[in-house]
């Protein structure tokens, strides 16, 4: 290995991920320790008769702390050979020179057969400025969940796919007629944190036709931004959403509970919601009749064809990618291990039969086949999805967006908020030169 | 009016130490009364109980005509001077002296005036603006006195006020204190473990041991006729010689020598009984040559007392100390003879003085009598 | 409420003419005695009431303090034995399962050992070095000594913050102290030493000079004096600083996390963070149990030190 | 070690250092005693601290372009901080926090306990002291859980006790909560310091005041406080600094809600760790140091006044 | 062998205080030497300079034949007993006593044995395992002595070792110390501010004032013939009466009374010059009736000294104190007369004793002479 490495006599590699046995992300930690490492070592021995040693630096802490530690390692020219990074860190790490495009590190990078199994859109997760930096490990997608029973009660169809924001608002207004029901939960405010941006503002903005970061510039007071904030204004000013819920620290958990209780009509969330929140057995707000009651629909563009890339629908995705440290002593071997970890076989070993969206189409086809919802996300959403910019400034921009939605929710007009957002943005991204309208 | 009357006053500390054991005692109005005794005998406890700083566990206490057993210290109208003076270091002399008046809410102008007057009486007029740290020990002591005097208490309580002064200053302070008390006429209880101080200052002395009073009397009573061997060995600037003896028909045999029986216990002794023969070093007359009826021994130590010498003889009776005139030559190793002054010798049986009549402790008759006045 | 004791029995004598000399023995009128007696009785009555109120007040206060300081601890006593601990200290469904889980966890038990190494090492280093330095600073007048101490005290506040992690990390990298427990010990010691010296110096200032002088007359060297006389005499102070620095290290997360690589070396503070789910939710069963295990060593140390050496401060800046 | 050689040499400088050098240490040997501590301090405190000061003058970030090419930007970070609402917000909050929890809370509670326990011995005193000290030595991550459990809105012990179900203390009274929390956590130090200080107040002084008729308040004002002023100031200095730099409340409230508990160390943590803006974070650390310095100077000024007064 | 010789020894403290001002002094081998003087006169400084705890600013110091002016304290072979004893509180009595031996690298077994023996000699055998906090003051003092003795130093230095004891114990300790020093024969310098202690113990006394020696001599020399009014007022358990007088042809006029001129200065006085007439209270004889050539006054204070009384008269000569026999009745307010013993009266001119010949301070001739031996 390089920094974390041991002696350089035999070929040795170090893997690092924010996972630890007996703790956070235990599944991944166990998989690396008990499946990846022994199998890879055996395979090298059998195929090439090479002794390799692979070790795993486990940790189980907040993502920020894990990121900080990696960054400190990398800026000092050391660090693990293979590391798991959140997709949105790729850009900032690349800009800092901590990681390099795969082709610069490994000559064979483009010739991995696995690339074909990963959709173009998903590959963005491990890419920055059209260069591949790593292999995406898994992803997700955002949709609109709705309560079919409530729809029926409001006189709407049980099967629903809005084609534009108007239809969304219409449905909400219809739901507004039911007592004790909040028609729409659209995450807003700072208490929700990144959920406001990822499960709220950004997918809508994509529907309005814009990325928050595009062609090297951040979006300021653009029409799309104003329109997106306008939707917030519409929903919260007209009583279609519950402003108080947006301020509580446990607001997000509460919204989950309320949805499960049948007190929220429509909710924008990722597939995590389906898998882990309302899952009849494993969920934290389980719904026994999930499969009958919970409907899901793609997030519509403001009007058909007005979304990004002229799409009718939009979504946002996140996930992590595994990256090779450019400073590694054994780039080829590291890449071999990396591809090994992202093989169909390996991913299936990781999931142990659980349904979850991976980056690979072939894997997804197998593991998702019993879950119509995840299949829906894999088939319908992932092709139209977008990813957040992996830039250092992103977290601060995200905070500004959260604050902006909070202002709208508490009664300011979308135009005013957009203007003041732009003003603050200048301070955060280093001047007007980095902002486009 | 401001006599202090203690009736079976008892103090048991939480740990179980019986520091005062049913003390019956009356300190007369205007009297200068000394409490004397070894360390830990309860002197400070008695003083603090009078002041109200310790709550008594039993018995009653009156100051003047008023039962103050349960009165808080601030309302007993007593003033106390502590061994360390307890001057507040952050206040000037004037502020220190005025402090009790300030607590009693005397107006500023009036109390400044009063404090200055009191301090002036004690010769502190020039130091009013100094802080205690800038004063000598003797001056500090006077500030403490002035503070105690400032609110005209009915009783003064002094806890070893002189023991922090150096030997020279102690002598001066002692004379000063005595004169001051005479002039003020305030009832005063004075604690000390220095018997010379007690003898020099007090109208009456109580000698205490483990929470009890062992003798009560005027200084000369206590000095001349200690009621028991405890008091005998405690009082006197040089300790009394207490020698084991056996009563014989013609006298008392001490260390093989037959000494004449002192007149007082003469008829009260039984032949052959064991007694203790007590004689102060001052009442032994030195003789370089053998004298019948004298104690003898080899000169072991000679200590200069200034105008006299304290000579320690080691002989068949053990160590015997005697005071010898400064002009008498005494050399180490010499043989010396000590002739007792018969009228000053005392005889103790079972530790108690053998007397002609009245209780020498001054406790039963004495204390009761004074208590009744 | 009791009336303030200030009004208690202002003796009428204090208002009399300021001539105490000679006037005192002349008997005052009988009404004065009567007045005094009444005052004394009233004062005694008030004193009784005041005392009762004071007693009640004292025990109320003590009960409140006891409640205040023990209430939060309740959870620690209950939750570890609860099969489904929530954030309430309710009657548990008793189980020792959590302990079993932790016993089987590959890092949990070992991390306690690591914590002992880090905390013990730092404590030892801080106590030793701070004692030496505080002694010298207390005994020898160096120009600007007090200023130096204040400046170091202030600087220690920067370094214990997060902003200094880059310098610390790079320094450790340069000195090859990454992934070494020694590195953690050294870095932590550097941050703790100024406060330790500051507090210990007060203790050193309080030891009587004559002890040292007398040893010196016997021919003891300064080091012998320090070892034989000063250290035993200021032992409560050393114990205090020792416990303090151990407690500081025991709870420190950031430095060991940043400087250590292999999970085998992680102290308990770092391992404690791993008992969270993917979604960031705390696994209360494990966390409460681990908290208990994690607290036991410091509590034992505290009990040992306080019974053995006393645990107190001398203190403050004198002169 | 005790050989005769070298002794006269070593002895000579020893004497010159004056009466306070009872062990005959001498400056050279004193320097030797100080050296190990100084070495560690210089390496792991002074050097990183200066480096941090330097970082504060750059736009250095943990990631992004600024990580690859940090530029010296002069006082820009300071400019930005001073114009930043979040900074002034956190400064005000920190001052509230320090004033409320350290100066008023810990110092007063610690003093009250020390004062009331001063003449006590036995089980009661030992129990009280042990509990208070326990709060002080338990690791922060543990005690924050204890407090989260105590203050929890559903089923928290406090709500059960006060019969106020559903009160979210950490949301509704966030500042008050962390202040009370910090009082709980840190009162031990003040208690110990004051207990030692009260041991230095001669009983005779208190008793003189009592004999004069002074009540408790007057005794405290006239006798105790002037006497322990030095300890009070040492105590305030240390607990203020410690509280100022205390990061623990983050574990309880994460700076929220709405930044209402974003005290300075939390602010720095977020800037440095969550946003990765190390240059800016360093600049704020330096500002924090300067504020600490001002506080220390205020205290030392009071201290000097005391010195003058007693001279 | 172990005489201590100081030659122009000077100590100036950093602040500029001249604590020792060119001291010339020789303490003889085996001598028990007392340093006496008021607080702040430099006694402790002198002792500490001998011990090496203070470095002298000038002059030289020899112990025995060796110049130790620059020798560190541990190599001077002296032992010091501090006023507070400086017993190490964390060590047992045995460990305390053995500590100097431990420093001298004596093997454990041997030093334990030796410490036990030394402690035994001082009657501490039963306390070897106790800690100092569990001992009484007198026992602590003996431990400090045992520790000082344990390594057989050539010189003992005692800094007010008795001042922490209570009055009673002080007397016993003093006798004990004297006997011990006699037996060991070690050169001893003893600091005290209690003149009675110095008189009782010392072979010779130096009386100091502000860093200088004002008189050097045996106790009786210093007591009987104080070389100046400073020493006169300092020495004696009751201060000497120093009365302003004028020389007349037939005597010295004091307070209107003509007192006979003492024999010694007789021929050396000039008519009409102002002098101070000095007479100790012990050398004034009391008379209730007027006697020619006596001092008179009204009795102001009577202090009981045990076997005698100290009477203060206030008369035309100011306050005059005299010692009166215990049996003589003296009442406050009485008129009293005090007749000086002519052979004990002294005359001071400009503060210095008027003598027949040799320098009474014992400084020039005496010190030089002894210094030369
Ligand atoms: N607060 C206390 N608690 C328990 N015991 C005490 C307390 N104060 C004093 N004692 C004990 O009560 C006894 C009498 O003590 P006190 O202080 O009255 O003696 P003393 O005669 O003044 O002695 P000294 O001459 O040493 O001052 C002693 O045995 C002492 O140990
Ligand atoms: N370390 C010091 N620095 C400056 N001056 C000092 C020091 N130690 C003593 N002095 C001064 O030197 C003088 C002599 O002091 P020393 O302690 O020798 O007196 P002392 O005769 O022992 O007095 P006491 O009887 O009070 O013990 C005093 O004026 C004192 O203030
Ligand atoms: Mg006492
Ligand atoms: Mg001295």
UniProtKB/TrEMBL annotation, chains B, E:
The keyword Membrane applies. SMART domains: AAA. One of its GO terms (molecular function) is ATP binding. Transmembrane segments: none annotated. Keywords: ATP-binding, Cell membrane, Membrane, Nucleotide-binding, Translocase, Transport. Pfam families: ABC_tran, OB_MalK. Residues 4-235 form the ABC transporter domain. Gene3D superfamilies: 2.40.50.100, Nucleic acid-binding proteins, P-loop containing nucleotide triphosphate hydrolases. PANTHER family: MALTODEXTRIN IMPORT ATP-BINDING PROTEIN MSMX, TREHALOSE IMPORT ATP-BINDING PROTEIN SUGC. The keyword Transport applies. It comes from Streptomyces spiramenti. The lineage of its organism: Bacteria, Bacillati, Actinomycetota, Actinomycetes, Kitasatosporales. This is ABC transporter ATP-binding protein.
UniProtKB/TrEMBL annotation, chain C:
Residues 1-46 are annotated as: Disordered. The chain crosses the membrane at residues 56-78, 116-137, 149-169, 181-200, 237-260, 280-305. Residues 7-25 have a biased composition (Low complexity). Residues 32-46 have a biased composition (Basic and acidic residues). Keywords: Cell membrane, Membrane, Transmembrane, Transmembrane helix, Transport. It comes from Streptomyces spiramenti. The keyword Flavoprotein does not apply. Pfam families: BPD_transp_1. It comes from the Bacteria. Residues 112-305 form the ABC transmembrane type-1 domain. It is found in: Cell membrane. It is a multi-pass membrane protein. This is Carbohydrate ABC transporter permease. The keyword S-adenosyl-L-methionine does not apply. PANTHER family: INNER MEMBRANE ABC TRANSPORTER PERMEASE PROTEIN YCJP (PTHR32243:SF18), MALTOSE TRANSPORT SYSTEM PERMEASE-RELATED (PTHR32243). Belongs to the binding-protein-dependent transport system permease family. InterPro entries: BP-dep_ABC_trans_perm, MetI-like, MetI-like_sf.
């Amino acid at each position: 290995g390089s920094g974390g490495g041991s002696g350089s006599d035999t070929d040795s590699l170090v893997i690092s991920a924010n996972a630890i046995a007996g703790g956070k992300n235990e599944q991944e930690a166990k998989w690396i320790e008990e499946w990846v490492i022994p199998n890879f070592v055996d395979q090298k021995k059998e195929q090439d008769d090479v002794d390799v040693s692979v070790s795993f630096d486990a940790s189980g802490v907040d993502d920020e702390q894990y990121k900080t530690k990696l960054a400190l390692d990398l800026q000092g020219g050391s660090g693990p050979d293979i590391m798991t990074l959140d997709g949105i860190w790729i850009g900032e790490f690349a800009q800092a020179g901590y990681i390099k495009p795969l082709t610069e590190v490994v000559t064979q990078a483009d010739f991995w057969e696995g690339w074909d199994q990963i959709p173009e859109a998903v590959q963005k997760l491990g890419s920055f400025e059209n260069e591949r930096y790593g292999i995406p490990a898994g992803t997700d997608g955002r949709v609109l969940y709705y309560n079919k029973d409530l729809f029926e009660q409001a006189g709407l169809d049980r099967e629903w796919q809005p084609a534009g924001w108007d239809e969304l608002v219409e449905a909400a207004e219809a739901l507004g007629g039911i007592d004790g029901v909040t028609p729409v939960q659209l995450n807003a405010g700072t208490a929700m944190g990144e959920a406001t941006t990822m499960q709220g503002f950004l997918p809508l903005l994509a529907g309005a036709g814009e990325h928050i970061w595009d062609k090297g510039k951040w979006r300021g007071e653009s029409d799309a931004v104003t329109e997106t904030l306008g939707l917030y204004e519409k929903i919260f000013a007209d009583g279609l959403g519950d402003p108080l819920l947006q301020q509580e620290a446990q607001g997000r958990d509460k919204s989950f509970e309320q949805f499960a209780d049948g007190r929220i009509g429509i909710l924008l969330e990722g597939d995590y919601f389906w898998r882990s929140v309302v899952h009849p057995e494993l969920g934290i707000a389980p719904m026994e009749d999930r499969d009958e009651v919970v409907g899901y629909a793609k997030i519509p563009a403001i009007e058909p064809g007005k979304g990004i890339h002229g799409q009718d629908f939009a979504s946002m995705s996140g996930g992590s990618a595994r990256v090779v440290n450019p400073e590694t002593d054994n780039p080829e071997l590291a890449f071999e291990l990396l591809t090994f970890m992202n093989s169909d076989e390996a991913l299936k070993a990781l999931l142990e039969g659980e349904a979850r969206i991976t980056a690979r189409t072939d894997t997804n086809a197998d593991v998702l086949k019993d879950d119509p919802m995840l299949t829906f996300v894999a088939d319908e959403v992932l092709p139209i999805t977008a990813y957040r910019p992996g830039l250092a400034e992103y977290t601060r921009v995200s905070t500004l967006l959260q604050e902006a939605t909070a202002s709208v929710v508490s009664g300011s007009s979308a135009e005013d908020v957009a203007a003041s957002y732009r003003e603050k943005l200048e301070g955060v991204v280093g001047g007007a030169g980095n902002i486009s309208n | 009016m401001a006599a202090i009357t203690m009736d079976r006053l008892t103090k048991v500390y939480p740990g179980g130490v019986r520091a005062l054991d049913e003390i019956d005692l009356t300190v007369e109005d205007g009297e200068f009364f000394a409490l004397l005794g070894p360390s830990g005998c309860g002197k400070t406890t008695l003083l603090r109980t009078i002041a109200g700083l310790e709550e008594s566990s039993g018995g009653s206490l009156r100051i003047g005509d008023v039962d103050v057993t349960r009165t808080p210290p601030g309302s007993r109208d007593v003033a106390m001077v502590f061994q360390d003076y307890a001057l507040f270091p952050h206040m000037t002399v004037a502020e220190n002296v005025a402090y009790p008046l300030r607590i009693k809410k005397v107006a500023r102008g009036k109390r400044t005036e009063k404090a200055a007057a009191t301090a002036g009486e004690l010769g502190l007029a020039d130091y009013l603006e100094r802080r205690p740290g800038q004063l000598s020990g003797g001056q500090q002591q006077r500030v403490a006195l002035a503070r105690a005097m400032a609110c005209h208490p009915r009783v003064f309580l002094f806890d070893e006020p002189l023991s922090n002064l150096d030997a020279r200053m102690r002598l001066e302070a002692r004379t000063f204190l005595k004169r001051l008390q005479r002039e003020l006429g305030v009832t005063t209880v004075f604690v000390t473990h220095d018997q010379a101080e007690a003898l020099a200052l007090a109208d009456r002395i109580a000698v205490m041991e483990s929470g009890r009073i062992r003798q009560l009397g005027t200084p000369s009573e206590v000095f001349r006729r200690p009621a028991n061997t405890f008091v005998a060995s405690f009082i006197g600037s040089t300790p009394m010689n207490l020698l084991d003896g056996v009563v014989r028909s013609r006298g008392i045999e001490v260390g093989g020598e037959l000494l004449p029986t002192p007149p007082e216990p003469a008829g009260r002794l039984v032949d052959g009984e064991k007694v203790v023969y007590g004689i102060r070093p001052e009442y032994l007359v030195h003789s370089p040559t053998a004298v019948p009826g004298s104690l003898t021994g080899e000169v072991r130590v000679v200590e200069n007392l200034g105008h006299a010498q304290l000579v320690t003889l080691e002989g068949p009776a053990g160590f015997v100390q005697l005071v010898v005139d400064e002009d008498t030559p005494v050399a180490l190793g010499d043989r010396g003879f000590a002739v007792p002054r018969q009228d000053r010798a005392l005889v103790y049986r079972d530790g108690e003085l053998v007397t002609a009549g009245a209780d020498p402790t001054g406790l039963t008759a004495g204390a009761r009598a004074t208590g009744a006045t | 409420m009791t009336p303030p004791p200030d009004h208690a029995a202002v003796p009428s004598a204090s208002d009399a003419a300021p001539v105490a000399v000679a006037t005192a023995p002349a008997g005052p009128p009988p009404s004065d005695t009567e007045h005094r007696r009444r005052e004394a009785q009233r004062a005694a009555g008030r004193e009784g009431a005041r005392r009762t109120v004071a007693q009640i007040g004292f025990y109320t206060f003590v009960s409140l303090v006891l409640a205040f300081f023990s209430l939060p601890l309740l959870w620690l006593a209950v939750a570890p034995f609860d099969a489904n601990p929530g954030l309430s200290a309710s009657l548990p469904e008793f189980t020792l399962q959590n302990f079993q889980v932790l016993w089987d966890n590959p890092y949990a038990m070992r991390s306690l050992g690591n914590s002992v190494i880090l905390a013990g090492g730092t404590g030892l280093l801080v106590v030793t070095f701070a004692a030496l330095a505080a002694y010298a600073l207390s005994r020898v007048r160096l120009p600007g000594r007090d200023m130096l101490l204040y400046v170091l005290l202030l600087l220690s506040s920067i370094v214990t913050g997060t902003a200094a992690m880059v310098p610390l990390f790079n320094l450790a990298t340069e000195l090859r102290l990454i992934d070494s427990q020694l590195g953690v010990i050294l870095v932590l010691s550097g941050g703790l030493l100024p406060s330790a010296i500051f507090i210990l110096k007060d203790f050193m200032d309080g030891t009587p000079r004559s002890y040292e002088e007398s040893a010196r007359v016997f021919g003891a060297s300064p080091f012998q004096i320090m070892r034989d006389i000063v250290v035993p005499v200021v032992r409560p102070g050393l114990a205090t600083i020792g416990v303090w620095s151990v407690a500081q290290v025991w709870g420190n997360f950031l430095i060991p996390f940043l400087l250590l690589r292999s999970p085998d070396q992680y102290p308990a503070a770092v391992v404690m963070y791993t008992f969270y789910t993917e979604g960031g939710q705390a696994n209360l069963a494990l966390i409460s149990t681990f908290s208990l295990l994690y607290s036991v060593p410091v509590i034992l140390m505290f009990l040992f030190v306080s019974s053995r050496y006393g645990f107190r401060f001398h203190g403050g800046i004198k002169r | 070690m005790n050989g005769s050689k070298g002794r006269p040499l070593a002895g000579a400088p020893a004497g010159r250092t004056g009466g306070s050098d009872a062990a005959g240490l001498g400056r050279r040997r004193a320097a030797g005693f100080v050296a190990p501590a100084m070495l560690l301090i210089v390496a792991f405190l002074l050097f990183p601290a200066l480096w941090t000061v330097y970082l504060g003058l750059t736009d250095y970030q943990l990631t992004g372009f600024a990580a690859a090419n940090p530029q010296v930007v002069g006082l820009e970070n300071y400019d930005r901080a001073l114009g930043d609402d979040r900074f002034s917000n956190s400064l005000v909050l920190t001052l509230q926090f320090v004033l409320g929890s350290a100066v008023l809370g810990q110092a007063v509670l610690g003093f009250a306990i020390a004062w009331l326990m001063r003449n006590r011995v036995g089980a009661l005193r030992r129990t009280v002291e042990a509990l208070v000290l326990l709060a002080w030595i338990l690791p922060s991550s543990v005690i924050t859980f204890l407090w989260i459990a105590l203050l929890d809105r559903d089923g928290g012990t406090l709500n059960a006790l006060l019969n106020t179900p559903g009160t979210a203390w950490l949301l509704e009274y966030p500042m008050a909560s962390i202040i009370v929390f910090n009082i709980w956590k840190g009162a031990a130090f003040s208690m110990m310091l004051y207990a030692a200080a009260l041991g230095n107040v001669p009983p005779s002084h208190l008793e003189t005041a009592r004999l004069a008729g002074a009540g408790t308040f007057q005794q405290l004002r006239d006798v105790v406080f002037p006497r322990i002023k030095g300890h009070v100031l040492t105590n305030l200095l240390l607990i203020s600094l410690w509280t100022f730099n205390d990061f623990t409340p983050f574990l309880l409230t994460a700076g929220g809600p709405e930044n209402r508990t974003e005290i300075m160390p939390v602010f720095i943590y977020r800037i440095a760790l969550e946003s990765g803006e190390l240059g800016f974070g360093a600049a704020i650390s330096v500002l924090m140091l300067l504020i600490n310095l001002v506080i220390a100077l205020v205290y030392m000024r009071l201290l000097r006044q005391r010195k003058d007064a007693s001279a």
